[in-house]
Amino acid sequence: MTWSETQPLLSQASWDTLYMVGWSTLFAVVGGLPLGLLLVLTDRGGLLQNLPANKVLGQVVNVARSMPFIILMVALMTFTRSITGTTIGREAAIVPLAIGAVPFFARLVETAVREVDGGLVEAVQSMGGNTWTVVRKVLVPESLPSLISSTTTTIVALIGYSAMAGTVGAGGLGDIAIRYGYQRFETQLMWITVAILAVVISVIQFAGDFAARSLHRRGGRSGPAPRLRLLRAEEPAAAAVDKVA
Amino acid sequence: MITTSGLTKIYRADRSRGREVTALDGVDLHVREGEVYGVIGQSGAGKSSLIRCINLLERPTSGTVTVAGQDLTALAGRGPRAGKELRRARSRIGMVFQHFNLLSTRTVQDNVELPLEILGTTGRDRSRKALELLDLVGLADKAGAYPAQLSGGQKQRVGIARALAGDPKVLLSDEATSALDPETTRSILQLLRDLNRQLGLTVLLITHEMDVVKSVCDSAALMERGRIVESGTVGELLATPGSELASALFPVGGDASGPDRTVVDVTFHGEAATQPVVSQLARTYNIDISILGAAVDTVGGLQVGRMRIELPGRYEDNVVPIGFLREKGLQIDLVDNPADPAVPAVPAGPAAQALLVKEGAK
């Protein structure tokens, strides 16, 4: 194949990949951020402690995460068709990508939010803030550098997933690599797609790291010792006993 | 201003059988308006639980908390979450923390504005108030800095400015100086003292450092294993025989030079301080007195002197001279002489004092 033949193919595929990854990242953040916060808040010692709810959420996230993406994609086909009307094409691929990425991002959010110093939560409560204030003024802003890193990780993972989605008719760079590179022995074309993916991922990683680092440099820690983890001040029974014991 | 009665806090592990920790065991505390009240105790004594129960960051298991005439435990209701009423009450109680707890992603000014945002103050009023407060704590030039760029003492000043943003009548200080060096500790305590005087702020502070109590407190309480074992104004404490807090606040050292000696601590404050008691004692009873240790200092704004003296002979031989000192209005505490096992340990408390006074009068 000549360059004039492959060039439009590759640019369309790159655009398709970015389109799928862009939208599914958006959905992953919109869905995963509240889910991750709820995982922390409903846990033992959390501000909204609710252990049964926490167990259920945790299990749902675990099951979704343990499912290989390719299986998830197939399992969700009926659901995808009911939303987009088709199971083929980049729009259809966004549905399983987003659903696969939400629990992934939620776990990363959970880890990031747990790192926030419980003393800050206590401080805002002592000022008369409610749970929503704590989330808005403390948990999200203070974990923002980590949340940005988590988003970067999620985008990179989604690029990988989107290549898998390419194998079942979603289009994108993965689709090119499989159809032309693997099935038609166009090894050169396969390597070009790999190179494009490598460049895209490097740029995203670099941009994400840069954003996280510049936020971090501005902030830094406020206290010398990070306290345990987010304690719910109203009823810190178990956590406090552990601390005392 | 702050009253707790029968305050009890028991921590239970949810699932374990019978594993309980009693952090507070019936604490009755009374802090008067406009005073600086220090609660001192070792770690694990329940100080942190106590201060967190005052603004109900922790729910007491039983007992009541009243701040500025408002029964906070009644506002709290049954549910685990703080209702609107309780949150409004909390916003009128300032709190300062050991590790400052400043938001690292906000500038100093934005940190001070945070409580005002929660109160719903408008933008311009917020920044005016925040700058005023920063000026009050001496950090007007740091408004645009981030907490990470400040020293520990400066961070705590920001913490204090933030605590004052809601115009509180009461300030709770949770080991505010424990993470600071001695020099900075002094300046932060001085600031708390100034705010107490200028704004008529009632301050309840908890600490494990006796120096903190000594330099700023009007009253103090000693906590041990969830109970308050001694409390009162500094003057009252010093006048209490056998008071652990008084001797810790105002220590005098020195051991007896040998057996068959009586060692007593003489505490004088007020007019008794000016009398030449030692020479009078020596002349009247013709005994030789050695001074083992002595100090004069200001504790909680009171001029106090304390002296440890040694009299020859056992306690039985010295009942009369000791009675003489008591008549002069001095406070006498008998010290155990470790070199002399024959002297029984003096039982502490008012009963022992009454006994000694009676013997002295003979």
From TrEMBL, chain A:
It is a multi-pass membrane protein. This is ABC transporter permease. Residues 14-212 form the ABC transmembrane type-1 domain. Keywords: Cell membrane, Membrane, Transmembrane, Transmembrane helix, Transport. The chain crosses the membrane at residues 20-41, 62-80, 92-109, 155-178, 190-212. InterPro entries: AA_ABC_Transporter_Permease, MetI-like, MetI-like_sf. The keyword Nucleus does not apply. Belongs to the binding-protein-dependent transport system permease family. It comes from the Bacteria. The keyword Membrane applies. It comes from Streptomyces tropicalis. CDD domains: TM_PBP2. It is found in: Cell membrane. NCBIfam families: PRK10782.1.
UniProtKB/TrEMBL annotation, chain B:
SUPFAM superfamilies: ACT-like, P-loop containing nucleoside triphosphate hydrolases. Residues 2-250 form the ABC transporter domain. SMART domains: AAA, NIL. It holds the Pfam family ABC_tran. Keywords: Amino-acid transport, ATP-binding, Cell membrane, Membrane, Nucleotide-binding, Translocase, Transport. It comes from the Bacteria. One of its GO terms (molecular function) is ATP binding. PANTHER family: AMINO ACID IMPORT ATP-BINDING PROTEIN, METHIONINE IMPORT ATP-BINDING PROTEIN METN. This is ATP-binding cassette domain-containing protein. It comes from Streptomyces tropicalis.
